[in-house]
Write a structure and sequence with these properties.
two-stranded antiparallel sheet, elongated, 12 strands, 10-stranded mixed β-sheet, 615 residues, single chain, 23 helices
Length: 615
Amino acid sequence: MVILLLFIAGVSFRIEPANFSPVAPYGAVSIITTTGIIFISYLGLAELAAVSEEVKNPTKNLPRAFIASAVVVTLFYVGIMIAVIGFSGPEGAAAGAAGAAGTAAAGVATSVTPLADIAGLMAGESGKIAIVLGALLATLSTANGAILSSSRFPFAMSRDALMPEWFVQVHEKYGTPHNAILVTGTVMVVLLFLFDIEELARLGGAFNILIFILLNMTVIILRKRTLPGYEPAFRDPFFPFTQVIGVAGSIILLPLLGFLPFLFILALASVGALWYRFYGRGKAMPEYNIFDLLEDTVEKAHIKPDSVAKVLVPISNPAHESDLLKLADCLGSEIICIHVVEVPDQTNLKLAQDAYHEKETEPDILFKEKFDRYPAKIGHKREYIVAFDHSISNSIIEQAEIEKADMIILGWHETKGFQYYLGEVINGVLSTSKKQIALLKGHLPEKIEKILVAYNGKENSNHALYLAKKLAANTGASIEILRIVSPDETPEEKKEVSEKLEDLVKSIPQVPVTFKLLERYSIEDAILEASNHSDLTIIGDSSQRFKVSLLGTLSQRVAIHARKPVMVVKKSKPISKESLNYLLKKYARKMYAKFGEGKEKGKEKGKEKSKKQAG
């Protein structure tokens, strides 16, 4: 820094103001493109963040280092550029200057080592040597910092079970992650042989711009969320404007770096996604993901599931009405029974409603009579609704929103050949509804004495246990919590799971609860085996957000093959396939309704116009 400071000071006395005109001879876009290429030069900040846990007194030292680095590096870079351009001008702008100084300056403008050439003109050979020495020191410190920080990425990922444990090994003598350092250093050297310097700068710049975008977005998300243990001592006084500018500026830079760097970023992102899916998924730390963080539900699954008070029960089959009403009576304090009359698309809903009231069919009367006769617990509110719609599933979803129901209880009884299938109505509700759903397959016994809960600690599993407690409290049944672990798990891991189950049982004092820990390779077979000894099995559906099937493979197979009744509990997450479907269908319905209104108004205007013409 001393060498560069002396250089700037010496050249400043020989700057020609005319060399700064025009300011952008190649246009403003060229400045932005160059910014993307040299962006990698400012990445000491990211390197510092990578080794933050090794810094002494990080509360004070990290903010100081971040701010000082940004300010000092920017001042030096800007100072050097002003000195070089002011002395030589862009592309030999000073070539017209009289004398030897002008000719030398023109040569400097087209040189690949302008700093050394300028220092040579000013101080001879000693000036060149000083600049070369400064460049050598800068290169060594930068390389050292790059290897230091880059090696901490695989080290940290290994500690979070995202990479093999080999990377987390620390050298006995030096206390450094030597394996990670060896691999990252080797990769850097290989890259130098594969790409030229400018192309490598573009690739590295593009990759680090992506990281810079993610870092700024992370700050915005973390500041707005209640993440346990996240209490930063330093806060950006200009939040969130600093981060928004950082993200917006970086997004502008990315496309200007060229097609290859952009393709490089997509390839890296794809490799990372595949690596997580096939290596880190299910074992990586932490257990929550970016979507949980966005929803601020990091600890929700471990604290308390959503309460259930108002239950919506769609009725379409008199033979199964009693089972669904019994569940609703035990799980909620307010039951809304809905019978949807499906109307053909070409028929007006108002006309269909009038026709229905004029002549009710026998099955429709039977639904209402059975609902009125069914015994309800004292104090429970009850309501029977007949709805008319072109789509039964849409009507159920809309009514659940209107009535603000906490849960929808559905019956899964349709068969196709020798297999159970969900049916169009259940498919529609499962794929769109944001409400909690309980899907009953089979018939409930007259008296429920034992409830089996297949438990894995995830969100839908917690909802299943919550509903089992309410059901047991209202029927006098006992609960058995079933947890399956792989025989390959270590004794310590099995002991930890057992201790958690013991604590879980102690937290449910109202009803008789026991737990069973089974060691099986097949979770499905273990649940089916245990379900034979219970009156009802309750299982939480898969907690995956964007899965292809409407029900998880495990819950679906258990429901299909179980001899006793099974209730599958499913809750759509705010950011999920179901929520996206709901928003898209809701928007489509609004657009269709507006289009229909416009069409009707057009017809009315047409009729009025015809009348006038006839008059």
